[in-house]
Amino acid sequence: MLNEPLLPCVWFILVGVLFTGYAILDGFDLGIGALHLFTKPDEERRVMLNAIGPVWDGNEVWLVTGGGALFAAFPAVYATVFSGFYLAFMLLLVALIFRGVAIEFRGKLPHPWWRRMWDIGFSAGSVLSALLIGVALGNITVGIPLDAGQEYTGGFLSLLRPYPLLLGVTTVALFAQHGAIYGVLKTEGELHEKLRRWANRSLVLFAVCYLAVTVATLLYAPHMTVTLRAHPWLFAIAALNVLAIANVPFQLARGRDFLAFLSSSAAMLCLMALFGIGMFPHMVYSLPNPEHSLTLANAASSQKTLGVMLIVALIGVPLVLTYTISIYRIFRGKVKIDPMSY
Questions:
Q1: Geometric angle at alpha carbon 21, from 15 and 26, rounded to 5°
Q2: Of 96, 90, 105, nearest to 124 (Cα)?
Q3: CB 115 within 8 A of CB 106
Q4: Which among 33, 164, 228, 304 has the fewest CB atoms less than 10 Å away?
Q5: 338 in a structural domain
Q6: d(CA 23, CA 167)
């Protein structure tokens, strides 16, 4: 990092923080959606919806803010990725919209067929969103074909390679266990115990997928280990990640649900940190022509633009954090169903 200009490095970290905030916060929303159809009683499904009802749309602010920051700080990256992944991102947008519509429309009519239809839509939109996010990260990790003008030269189907698909499945499993733990925090009774079991099962699935992704990364994306090998002390983050994952079932078994949720969040933070460290100083890695990659040096906005934006960010990000913390504080505690609930 010392060899790179300061402001692009700051914005590299800041964009990463924003997307990490989205992964942690909307991750449990998507996880609740992925698990939604595993419970049958209508009241239990309503409880799961109301667990995220007050916060799901606010959580997506982090995605919008992260995308806006990427556009302003690294416009070349935004242009390449959003044009190259256009169909995939449109599909992601449709899935996110349909998920939100399903949450709001499910309770408008009491008919079982009506609610069942929106239940399927909510769950499908959540799983598809998590899968596409993972596939996008997988393609960025392993590299995509860029020409000399740093434009994507592949097609939609070329994004569906084994490594990105594996990372997509891993993301679904990660969000499912994260959502299950959040559900444990917000529920009582039989559903509470169901979600506790689902959290442990999805954690096992995630651990298996994570091990497979680690091996696949070493084999097919060796460039992701360059910075780690150059600075061995960074392996401490990988160690913290393993400890955080291992601490989740430990805390769940002892009924310390909030600590389990914090451990799950810490694991996601470490995973995003490892992703950023592995990519640095690349923003988009070009394969098979690494010389065409987008980096901090050739993709960042001007120093003046980055400086002005940093002042705005120092004002805006604390406001978003304050809003987020206040909402979670207002709606803390177990979910209770009433006539105004979803």
A1: 125
A2: 96
A3: yes
A4: 304
A5: no
A6: 14
Q: Residue 263 half-sphere exposure, CB side, CA atoms within 13 Å? A: 20
Residue with tokens 């009683």: 41
- State the pTM of this model: 0.95
Q: Which residues constitute the domain of residue 249?
A: 7-330
In the block, which residue shows the tokens 């979670």? 328
pLDDT tens, residue by residue, 204-239: 999 999 999 999 999 999 999 999 999 999 999 999
Alpha-carbon torsion (80, 84, 86, 88), positive or negative? negative
Q: Give CA–CA dist 82/302, Å, rounded.
A: 21
Query: How far is CA 61 from each of CA 160, 163, 306, 322, 325, rounded to the nearest angstrom?
Result: 28, 29, 21, 13, 13
* Residue 151, Cβ density class (10 Å: 0-12 exposed, 13-18 middle, ≥19 buried): middle
Q: Is the pLDDT of residue 97 over 90?
A: yes
Instruction: Give the model confidence (pLDDT) of 242-296 as tens digits.
Output: 999 999 999 999 999 999 999 999 999 999 999 999 999 999 999 999 999 999 9
Residue 142 lies in a domain: yes
User: Does residue 246 lie in a domain region?
Assistant: yes
For the chain, give the percent of residues with pLDDT over 90. Answer: 86
- For residue 54, being part of any structural domain is answered with yes
Q: How far apart are CA 187 and CA 200, in angstroms?
A: 16
